[in-house]
Amino acid sequence: MEKREKLRIVSLLPSATEIVACLGLANVIVGRSHECDYPPEVKLLPACTQPKFNPVGSSREIHDRVTDLLQKALSVYQVKIDIIQQLQPSHIITQAQCNVCACSLTDVEKAVHNLLGSEPQIISLQPNLLAEIWQDIERVATALGVDGKQALASLQSRVDFCANQTYTTRPTVACIEWLDPLMAAGNWVPELVTLAGGEPLFGITGKHSPWLKWDDLVAAEPQVIIFMPCGFDLERTRQDTMQVTNNTEWQKLQAFRNGKVYVTDGNSYFNRPGPRLVDSLEILAEILHPEKFQFGYQGTAWEPLETWQ
After folding, report:
1. How many Cβ atoms sit within 10 Å of the Cβ of residue 173?
2. What is the homologous superfamily of the domain 168-307 according to CATH?
3. Rg of the chain over CA atoms, in angstroms?
4. Pairing assessment for the beta strands 302-304 and 91-95 based on DSSP bridges
5. 32-59: pLDDT as tens digits
6. Does position 297 have pLDDT exceeding 60, yes or no?
7. Contacts of range 245-250, beta carbons closer than 8 Å, 24 or more positions apart
8. CA 24 to mean position of chain CA atoms
């Protein structure tokens, strides 16, 4: 109890915030990133980061702005050192996986170097696989002085429920992580597709998300297409996907012709390597095998294209 009272956590990563909450420590989070929004109460906490680019615009405009910063060897996000100084955290949780997704470890280390009267412990996460996410949860639990076994067991039991089903068919699935230019989902997403009874195309488990050409998408003839753009909620994905369907190549896709195209809330689920990836697995299971699974996510976390076209 004494150690918990001394904890003051600044989480600069949405998935890390969700990990801390999953471990029962949401009440000791004192600061967050500008993107942390779950559990909902964390939105009341001070934001310790902000983007250096305008996040409003089309997929292509956002891509070009971020690319311009990266080509100039500039950071995509800014750490608000003054706010972190005021919060005096005992721990700061960040990531070293993707400079586009959140503040980098280098940015955080530079910020901490400038702090006065505080030496917070930095916990950096870099998962690419489901097993590595479980390891991160355990590592965060150990660093914060709590037992993560019960939380991990609960998550794994839900994964096992989907994975242990017998699937008579496994449709080929193209998961799209960005719309313009096209990017397929990699890292943990192909693994989730497999666990949910599908055969993933393009993305490779444990590897970064690959860029994709329209010709490659058409040639692969996926039976199912699932849009999960990074950072976009269901409404934003719906809007942007409507523009994609204007592409002349779109009508050639059997997934479109067969009504097997879906939009999801990628920001809340698939893009965050934390506890809600299990929700993401259940979403995929609902989409790919509705005869077996009805978890109740349809309408809030995903929709078929035909419901709003």
Report:
1. 29
2. Nitrogenase molybdenum iron protein domain (3.40.50.1980)
3. 20
4. unpaired
5. 999 999 999 999 999 998 875 556 667 7
6. yes
7. 245/305, 245/309, 247/214, 249/214, 249/215, 249/217, 249/218
8. 21
User: On the CB side of 269, how many CA atoms lie within 13 Å of its CA?
Assistant: 22
Query: What is the secondary structure of 125-156 as a DSSP string?
Result: E---SHHHHHHHHHHHHHHHT---HHHHHHHH
The secondary structure of 61-88 as a DSSP string is: HHHHHHHHHHHTT--SEEE-HHHHHHH-
How far is Cα 172 from Cα 193, in angstroms, rounded to an integer? 9
More confident residue, 107 or 268: 268
What pLDDT score was predicted for residue 70?
47
Q: Which residues are registered as beta bridge partners of 172?
A: 199
- Categorize the per-residue pLDDT at 94 as very low, low, confident or very high, splitting at 50, 70 and 90: confident
Q: Which two tokens stand for residue 27?
A: 């009440």
Q: Right CATH number for 2-154 from 3.40.605.10, 3.40.50.1980, 3.30.70.660, 3.60.9.10?
A: 3.40.50.1980
Residue 88 exposed, middle or buried by CB count within 10 Å (0-12, 13-18, 19+): middle
Place of tokens 């095998």: 289
